[in-house]
Amino acid sequence: MLGFLTAVAAAKDARSCTCGGPPxxxxxxxxxxxxxxxxxxxxxxxxxxxxxxxxxxALFHRLGDHRAFVPNSDPPRLSRMYRxxxxxxxxxxKGPRRGTTLFMNTGFGGGDCSFPFWNKKRYLIYATKGPHGxxxxxLCTRSRWYSQATSDIHALDSLRxxxxxS
Length: 166
Hints:
The chain is an alpha+beta fold. It has helices at about 1-10, 25-30, 55-65, 150-160, and strands spanning about 35-50, 75-95, 100-105, 120-130, 135, 145. Strands 1, 2, 3, 4, 5 and 6 form a six-stranded antiparallel sheet that branches.
């Protein structure tokens, strides 16, 4: 929880996503928990609340950020909104099998480094597991539109041929 809140606090003053550019294909493959091609079949906007512990509340108060608190909630709750993207796996080098459907949660952009998924589009995705085991990606990875991934796909096939596929 504290890691999530620290990220929220750091993003509060962020003007844009900065991550120094994506790694090379081999490094991205090795450091990713999953690498696959998938098509977005649905994007839903999710609104919910989470209960905050006292250290999280103190952090928000210290930052002077009270916008996301649910008014008069006891214990204190934080209101949040994000996008849940439903993906159908078409091809995989690492991670979920072809035909699998999975979900990724992402933000809305504006400096949070969230990946800009579009409904019905195909992507090459380099994903890592979050604290609860759910796969996610960001602008800081090599994830990209499938139509712009030809060289990555050739490199991934080459890695598999050389025996570095896990």
